[in-house]
Fold:
Amino acid sequence: MDILLNDIEVRILGCLIEKEITTPDYYPLTLNALTNACNQKSNRHPVVSYEDTTVVRGLDSLREKGLAEKIYKADSRVPKYQHSFPQKFNLSGDYVAVLCELMLRGPQTVGEIRNRADRMYNFEGLQEVEEILNRLMEKAPPLVVKLPRQVGRKEPRFAHLLSGEPEIPEEEPVVSEESATMRVRAENERIAKLEDEIVALRRELDKLKEDFTSLKSQFE
Structure:
C-alpha cells in the first residue's frame, strides 16, 4: 500500500488511534478535542502547538487517503472524527498499539515501546513486542525499520515508515543526566498526566451539565 503521510497527518492519526483505545467514551473526537490531543505534553515527541486550521487540513488529507472519517452524531452539535487505520492496513490491536506509539513519540527501543504502549495493549513481554516489530518489518511494503544503534546506547531503536525512510541525524555524544534532572523530568511527566486527567474530568462535567440542562428543559 503506497501511502505516505507528513508529520501533521501522523500526529493526527496517532492521536485518533490513542484516544479510541484509552478514552473510548469520548471517541470519536471533536475538532477541539483532537487539537488538544495533538498538542498535549505527555506521551508526545516532539511537543507541538497546532492551530485548529492545521488539524483541519491534516484531516482533509487523511480523509482523501481513506484513513479518517467525518461523522455527524444525533447527540452532538458538532461533527466528530474517527480513523480507519486498522482496516486500511489490515492490522490487529497489538500491531496498531506498537505503530501508534511510534507515531506519537518517534523512534524507540523495544523496551520503551513495551512500557509506553502498555496503556493501549497488554503485552506479555519484550519478546512479543519484538516479534510484532519483526513482522511489521517483513510486510510488503514494510511499516517499520530498525535504525542503526546509536553510539553509547546498547539497544537499537525502531521507527515507523508511514512517512517514508526516517532521517537519521548525525551522532551526538551521549551524556548521562544527573539524578536530580531525571527526577524533575519524571515529576513533570506526572504533572502533565494529571493535567490531561483534569481536562478529561472537566469535559465529563460539562457533558453532565449539558445532559442535566436538557433533562430539566423537558419538565419546564
Notes: The mean pLDDT is 90. The first strand starts at residue 68 and ends at 71.
